[in-house]
């Protein structure tokens, strides 16, 4: 299961570590097989593990059937545009899980959900947050007819002063180029996370996972 083509062909993915395996067992996902070092030995676990340092537990899990994501009234949904770093995607799903966000839209060039590094970085959030891949601009255009679409930009309005709604879609751009022009055209409210103090000389931008945490926190703070 180390390569995407095999995961796609078989509809399976691997989780490793006591916590993730326990999360998988409690999730309701179909567990195809599970292994523990105590049963199969360290040498065998090292052969099947995808980690540099194998954990004592590993499970093969069936990928759930994809169900289209819909944005319900007053529901906050994340949208990811070209997030290609596995660690960032996994962390963003963990952030979504923490803030009670259960649905994520993702552009086709966002890193694969079942990439082993993504799975590990989610710390179990992969079992609670649904992700739908597709033409992000088309999805935003469709959902934008019924809910506000927010996006983070360097020329946006201060997120701490801008009016926010309880629900909506929050678009976060890629690490390298931000939100694409196609997705940006669907954004109805451009937001900016200011540095402190506001006129301080800082780095060019925030890491996308860090920015996602700040933005989600502000939305939730307004409507806790």
Report mean pLDDT, rounded to a whole number: 92
> What is the strand content?
15-25%
Largest sheet: 6 strands, parallel
Shape: elongated
Quickly count the helices: 9
Sheet/helix structural class? alpha/beta
Q: What count of domains describes the coordinates?
A: 2
Strand order of the largest sheet: 6-5-4-8-7-9
* CATH fold-level assignment of the largest domain: Alpha/beta knot
Describe the model.
The structure is a single chain. By secondary structure, the chain is an alpha/beta fold. The mean pLDDT is about 90. Strands 6-5-4-8-7-9 form a six-stranded parallel sheet, sandwiched between helices. It has a three-stranded antiparallel sheet with strand order 1-3-2. It has two domains: about 5-60, 60s Ribosomal Protein L30, Chain: A, CATH 3.30.1330.30; about 75-220, SPOUT methyltransferase, trefoil knot domain (Alpha/beta knot). About 35% of the residues are buried. The protein has helices at about 5-10, 20-25, 35-40, 40-50, 85-100, 115-120, 135-145, 180-185, 210-220; strands at about 10-15, 30-35, 55-60, 75-80, 105, 130-135, 150-160, 170, 190.
Please specify the SSE layout and strand pairing.
Elements: H1 4-10, E1 12-16, H2 18-27, E2 31-36, H3 37-40, H4 42-48, E3 57-62, E4 76-80, H5 86-98, E5 103-107, H6 116-122, E6 130-134, H7 136-143, E7 149-158, E8 168-172, H8 181-184, E9 189-192, H9 208-222
Parallel strand pairs: 4-5, 4-8, 5-6, 7-8, 7-9
Antiparallel strand pairs: 1-3, 2-3
Helix pairs in contact: 5-6, 5-9
């Amino acid at each position: 299961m180390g390569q995407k083509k095999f995961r796609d062909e078989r509809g399976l993915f691997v989780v490793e570590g006591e916590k993730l395996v326990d999360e998988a067992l409690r999730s309701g996902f179909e567990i195809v097989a599970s292994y523990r070092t105590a049963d199969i030995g360290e040498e065998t676990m090292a052969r099947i593990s995808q980690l540099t340092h194998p954990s004592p537990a590993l499970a093969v899990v069936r990928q759930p059937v994809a169900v289209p994501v819909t944005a319900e009234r007053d529901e906050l949904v994340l949208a990811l545009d070209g997030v290609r770093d596995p660690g960032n995607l996994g962390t963003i799903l963990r952030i979504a899980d923490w803030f009670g966000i259960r649905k994520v839209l993702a552009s086709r060039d966002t890193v694969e959900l079942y990439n082993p590094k993504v799975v590990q970085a989610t710390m179990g959030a992969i079992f609670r947050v649904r992700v739908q891949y597709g033409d992000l601009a088309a999805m935003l255009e469709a959902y934008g007819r019924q809910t506000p679409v927010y996006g983070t930009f360097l020329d946006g309005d201060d997120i701490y002063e801008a009016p926010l709604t309880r629900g909506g879609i929050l678009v976060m751009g890629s690490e390298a180029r931000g939100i694409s022009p196609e997705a940006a055209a669907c954004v109805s409210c451009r937001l900016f996370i200011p540095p402190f103090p506001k006129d301080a000389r800082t780095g060019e931008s925030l890491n996308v996972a860090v920015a996602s945490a700040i933005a989600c926190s502000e939305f939730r703070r307004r409507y806790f």
